[in-house]
Amino acid sequence: MSAAADAPLQADERDGDPIPLSALQHAVYCLRQAALIHLERLWEENRFTAEGHVLHISADKMGERKVRGVRRVMALSLAAKGLGIAGVADLVEFRPNADGTETPYPVEYKRGKAKLHRADEVQLCAQALCLEEMTGQAVPEGALYYAETKRRIVVPFDGELRALTHKTIDDMRTVFSTLQTPPPIFRTDRCRACSLLDLCRPKTVGKPARRWREKMLATLLSDDEANV
Length: 228
Ligand code: SF4
What we know:
Elements: E1 2-4, E2 19-20, H1 21-29, H2 31-38, E3 42-44, H3 47-59, E4 63-67, E5 70-80, E6 85-96, E7 102-110, H4 119-135, E8 141-146, E9 151-156, H5 159-178, H6 188-191, H7 197-200, H8 202-205, H9 207-227
Parallel strand pairs: 2-6, 7-8
Antiparallel strand pairs: 1-3, 4-5, 5-6, 6-7, 8-9
The structure holds iron/sulfur cluster.
Iron/sulfur cluster binds at residues 30, 32-33, 36, 184-185, 190-191, 194, 196-197, 200, 202.
């Protein structure tokens, strides 16, 4: 299924709007993909995204319950006004401390298995940054749950991951403030699995297309000169 969803954003439409947490995940994978989805509002469903939706539909049931002393909140809305980001966490566990406080522990559900890139970790870390601003509590770690392996992978929010998350937020803010979609950079591993491959056409839009445009322009100019 493909859908060219809503109209692309206009210059002042995003003013004051927070950056969606899901955009950060896309931005780590490919900044152009994030711009095509969240700025130009293009979306192409493929098997990978469809599986992800099914997983999130089951995770997105709002609710709260207590399991072995841990408060578990599903589909929790998050925001960090200071950073200008917002979204929804699949699950946040509030783990009790001895002093009566609770330490938030975000858990994000993902299709497939753990990946080589850090897109999932950045999205989770952004959730932690929101939870820290919202609760005033440090959030030292969280977990990614992968449907294929049915296992949680603990993600420590160390300095390196936090720095990458802040950089990704800055990159995405630049895309929204300039309304510029970055040019494609073809990467076999990422482009082949990308749901936007047919819309992006990274091999066509890149160098060959530029060369073709230059050749056509040169032909037109020489025709014009010949007709003067
Ligand atoms: S096809 Fe490649 S360059 Fe284009 S949006 Fe997808 S990952 Fe990015």
